[in-house]
TrEMBL record:
The protein's required cofactors: FAD
Domain 2Fe-2S ferredoxin-type: 278-358
FAD-binding FR-type domain segment(s): 51-153
InterPro entries: 2Fe-2S_ferredoxin-like_sf, 2Fe-2S_ferredoxin-type, 2Fe2S_fd_BS, Beta-grasp_dom_sf, FAD-bd_FR_type, FNR_nucleotide-bd, MRET, OxRdtase_FAD/NAD-bd
Entry protein name: 2Fe-2S iron-sulfur cluster binding domain-containing protein
GO molecular function (one): 2 iron, 2 sulfur cluster binding
Length: 358
């Protein structure tokens, strides 16, 4: 309801609000000045990313390696999907309620459809198996995003892409953009055999002379870190995506070139550094779980309840966030954790016990 300056004008000692001209002008000026002062203190509220769920139709399903399925997604009404950049991913909401992240691996920036690819991991958390079995052409797939935490820098001039297996998905569109931009890039793509390396031909076709293929069965063994980083100079920007041992080996080897950009994308939890055991009390049931030094709170919670919500397992999506009721948290997430919040996939405890609202 609006309010006139008359009603906000102070009453005199007798409770009267007389409209004499002089005091009215003074009062009006005061109201205007207060308004300007309030505007100068105004700050826009923090913009939150839109967590809009989008339902897409699956227009194509293709096995691109014996254990990798590629799905093409489109707007059911033929419209454009949200814009994206190479290295970006979407958060797929599976029918079971699980959430999983998959890199967009279609042509860079293409919005008429998206392409994602999923390697089936028999002993994983069940998400990849569900992705393989739950979706077929004509079906609906719900996702959020896209988001990007693995962008190709605009200033790069000399780039080495290090790829292991399904790690090709975020890097494939990056390489296409690198070629368009005239960047001096090379790539090494490693996998157990050519058959098991998805999108191999597509990647090589971008610029065959720039791509080195390392098939373990041809070389009779894994590539060493020296093989992976061959030709990378002290200023070369390295982009790596692959299994955890590959990431850790490359990271360790590039420590001596701390000024050179190193970008990486994980598909699995990071190793736990300086882990100290602690107790996690689930307030709703009173259950106390022991979190050992080498496991995350999320893993221990999932042992007890396999439906425990998570997605990235790397501390940036926020899916696993719980409310903390007592105890001190050692916050290790890459997304904001409030004073009373904990990302149980990565964060740990500074106190002996953390009590969470779970
Ligand atoms: S699962 Fe993504 S932040 Fe924990």
């Amino acid at each position: 309801m609006s309010q006139s300056i008359w009603s906000t004008r102070p009453a005199d000692l007798y409770g009267r609000r007389r409209r004499d001209r002089f005091s009215t002008v003074l009062w009006g000026v005061r109201v205007l000045l207060e308004g300007f002062a309030a505007m100068s203190r105004w700050k826009p509220s923090r913009v939150r990313p839109v967590q809009r769920k989008i339902a897409a139709v699956i227009t194509q399903r293709e096995l691109v390696a014996p254990d990798v399925v590629a799905l093409t997604l489109a707007d059911p009404d033929g419209g454009l999907l949200p814009s994206w950049t190479p290295g970006g991913h979407i958060d797929v909401v599976l029918p079971s309620g699980r959430r999983r992240q998959y890199s967009l691996c279609g042509l860079p920036g293409r919005r008429t459809d998206y392409r994602i690819a999923v390697r089936r991991i028999a002993d994983g958390g069940g998400g990849s198996i569900e992705m393989h079995e739950a979706f077929d052409v004509g079906g609906t797939l719900v996702f959020e995003g896209p988001r990007n935490a693995f962008c190709l820098g605009t200033a790069e001039r000399d780039v080495l892409f290090v790829i292991g297996g399904i790690g090709v998905t975020p890097i494939l569109p990056m390489i296409q953009v690198a070629e368009q931009r005239g960047i001096d890039w090379r790539a090494i793509y490693a996998g157990r055999s050519r058959e098991y390396m998805p999108f191999l031909d597509e990647l090589v076709s971008v610029a065959p002379a720039r791509v080195t293929i390392w098939a373990d069965d041809e070389h009779r063994g894994f590539a060493t870190v020296d093989d992976l980083l061959a030709g990378a100079g002290p200023t070369t920007a390295v982009y790596v995506c692959g299994p955890p041992p590959m990431l850790e080996a490359v990271r360790a080897a590039r420590v001596e070139h701390a000024d050179a950009p190193l970008h990486y994308e994980r598909f699995s939890p990071p190793p736990i550094v300086d882990g100290i055991p602690f107790e996690l009390e689930l307030a709703r049931s009173g259950t106390v779980l022991r979190v050992p030094a080498n496991r995350s709170a999320l893993e221990v919670m999932s042992d007890r309840d396999p439906t425990t919500a998570y997605s990235c397992q790397q501390g940036f999506c926020g899916t696993c966030k719980v409310k903390v009721l007592a105890g001190q948290v050692d916050r290790r997430g890459r997304t904001a954790e409030g004073d009373d919040e904990m990302l149980v996939c990565v964060s740990r405890a500074k106190s002996d016990r953390i009590v969470v609202d779970a």
